[in-house]
Specification:
The protein has helices at 4-13, 17-25, 28-49, 54-63, 65-118, 138-145, 243-260; strands at 125-134, 158-163, 168-175, 178-190, 194-199, 206-215, 218-228, 271-272, 275-276. By secondary structure, the protein is α+β, with helices and mostly antiparallel strands. The protein is rod-shaped, with a radius of gyration of 40 Å. The chain starts with a helix and ends with a strand.
């Protein structure tokens, strides 16, 4: 019989008798030892039957050295089999936990990780700074940029820009198949020098485009973008603000303005601290 510790373990771990029996049935070494023990038990029982009385039979069985040895071997086999069953149960339990984590627990882990990372990584603004030279006068480049509703002509992913008033723009953009809409407020606007804005969608994306004359018909356009990067989102947030995209927008702007040679319109007003002057 099993020692008390194994019996207690059986009770504590709620291992079913069917599971244990199934494991023993699959154990080749245990089956061999069990058959050997049964064979010796049969032989010992026959020997005891030749002696008179129950006491004699019990004594003969108890003193049979081969039977004792087989019982000890079978007991050790039972203990080893039990250990394998417990190991298998532990492995299955661990796998079950992994499955549960993948099915539902992962959502909790992801939520906690998002909060943890947002408090560390996400709070650090990401800044992109790109520039390009255009072969037009600085005033032409500036005037064209003030035509905000033309942004979809050269800005990747931008579907629509509507100028609501002198300082407020409504944007619609599609990035990675997801459409987002938000308003942006112009904070600073100085003719031929600078335009700065900030989004009002909670992400607080900031942008500044500056213009520098390099000659009579040449200028440098520099675009700087900053935003709070969410580590669980694709780099670039809702507006797709990554370096590749910004660089691509500048190259398309250059192609647009140089192919035309002139602006499609102009707004020469000035904005200071979000107020038109």
């Amino acid at each position: 019989m099993l020692r008390r510790t194994k019996s207690q373990a059986l009770k504590d771990n709620a291992a079913s008798a069917t599971q244990f029996a199934s494991a023993l049935a699959k154990d080749r070494k245990f089956r061999k030892e069990l058959l050997s023990a049964l064979s010796h038990g049969t032989i010992a029982r026959r020997r005891a039957a030749r002696r008179i009385g129950l006491a004699a039979a019990v004594a003969r069985l108890g003193s049979d050295p081969k039977l004792k040895n087989e019982v000890r071997k079978m007991t050790r086999s039972l203990e080893r089999a039990w250990g394998r069953v417990e190991k298998e149960r532990s492995h299955k339990m661990r796998n079950s936990l992994f499955v549960l984590a993948g099915a539902g627990g992962a959502a909790l882990v992801a939520t906690g990780a998002r909060r943890w990372l947002s408090g560390r990584v996400g709070m650090t603004p990401r800044t992109i700074d790109e520039s390009i030279e255009v072969s037009v006068p600085v005033s032409t480049a500036y005037n064209q940029w003030t035509q905000f509703e033309d942004f979809p002509l050269f800005m990747e992913g931008v579907d629509h820009v509507q100028q609501l008033d002198d300082t407020l723009l409504h944007w619609a953009a599609t990035v990675s198949g997801k459409t987002n809409q938000w308003n942006a407020k112009i904070l600073e606007q100085h003719p031929d020098r600078q335009i700065s804005w900030i989004s009002e969608d909670g992400k607080k994306t900031r942008g500044t485009v500056s213009f520098e004359p390099l000659g009579e018909k040449k200028a440098r356009v520099r675009l700087s973008m900053s935003y709070q990067a969410d580590p669980f989102e694709a780099v670039g947030s809702a507006a797709g603000l990554d370096a590749r995209r910004v660089r691509g927008d500048l190259e398309r702007f250059k192609e647009l303005i140089e192919s035309r040679g002139t602006e499609t319109g102009a707004w020469r007003g000035e904005v200071i601290a979000g107020q038109k002057k």
